[in-house]
Amino acid sequence: MAQHSYSRITFSRTLICKAVILLVFTVMLLDYSYYLFSDRKPINKIVAPGLAWISHLNQKLSDTKALSNNSFLPLKPHNILLNRSLVSESSNSSKLYSSKVENKNISLNFINSSHLEPSTECPLIPPKLVGRLKVLTESPPFVALEQMFTDLNPGGRFKPNDCLSRSKVALIIPYRDREEHLRIFLHNVHPILQRQQLDYGIYIIEETANMKFNRAMLMNIGYVEASKQYPYDCFIFHDVDLIPEDDRNLYNCPEQPRHMSVAINTMNYRLPYKDIFGGVSALSKKHMKIVNGFSNEFWGWGGEDDDMSNRIKHHGLKISRYSSKIARYTMLKHKKDEPNPDRYNKLYKGKYRYTKDGLSNLKYKRLEIVFKKLYTWVLVEIEPIK
Fold first, then answer.
1. CA gap 207, 210 in Å, rounded
2. pLDDT in tens, 181-236
3. What pLDDT, in 10s, does the model give residues 249-259?
């Protein structure tokens, strides 16, 4: 009797084991089919097919947690000085682009039109960031730079091919007589923006030489001209003589306006004062509409950034910043411009002009636009607004 009961127990255990093995095999088979036919491959190519769905779920949970915390995750052991020419994937290319690509009538909406848009969004934290960088101070000729960055489209445009970028970013650079600085800037910045997996374009906005320099008005013009070319949602207003030292300083637009050049070498990597918004700053399209852009009344050096800072506070927005350990810049040597003697008076009376001074009354004449390989060049004629 006892022997018969023992045989039944053994038989039941055998059936259970076989059922479990069959169930595991079925799950693995179904998951392997998912791996083969789904457009969502496992994040890690080494992951076994039977664990692909777990990897995908973990990645989704990780992205959601990072997004809800609104935090920037530090890199693990990659905070090292690195020569960017070694990490640029296009630096070894020898293909030379002719200046014939500088077509004034070209439309930028054609970019990557021959390829299907990726269905998967780029990771919240770009995977190829390297952290602290060595600033390259040499200034290669434009022809050499074109050879380095063969993956650029006309107008200095780029977008990743393997994922859908989270940000459409226009870099707006007010410019006058800084060709060497521009070459250094392009040499350093293009690899950073590409590693950050941005859908971006670089715009050099230059005014005719017969007028005083109006940095703020040129930034307003850059915003308007870039918006005509492509549906950008983020605008980085950038001095050409500031070179980022860390690619974890993401060139995108958060919920609040971001002051990006927090720590500059010429200022001992310290923030001069808490309300500063100069050098490099990020404003979304929504932000620009709320504050009515920059003031058009600051001719010569100084004042326009503090006026923007006041506009931001006036409209209930706040200035956000990364840590000074990440938002670091090197300033290239240059002769200081003459200060605007009327800047303090303009600042004091600024609050009375916020609605009528800015994008709302911007007037200029575009003389030329050229879609060069490395950037879009816009030449304009501007006059004091009466």
1. 8
2. 999 999 999 999 999 999 999 999 999 988 888 999 999 999 999 999 999 999 99
3. 999 999 999 99
Dist CA 290 CA 355 (whole Å)? 10
**In 112-139, which positions are buried (b, 16+ CB within 10 angstroms) versus exposed (e)?**
eeeeeebeeebbebbeebbbbbebeeeb
The answer to which of 91-100, 255-264, 369-378 has the lowest mean pLDDT is 91-100
What are 258's two structure tokens?
């971001």
Alpha helices by DSSP H, listed for the chain, are 2-37, 52-69, 84-87, 142-148, 179-195, 215-229, 285-291, 304-314, 343-348
- Give every CB contact of residue 182 below 8 A, 6+ residues apart in sequence: 173, 175, 204, 240
For residue 263, what is the enclosing H or E element?
strand 263-264
Helices then strands, each counted (H, E), the chain: 9, 10
Hey, is 135 helix, strand or coil?
A: coil
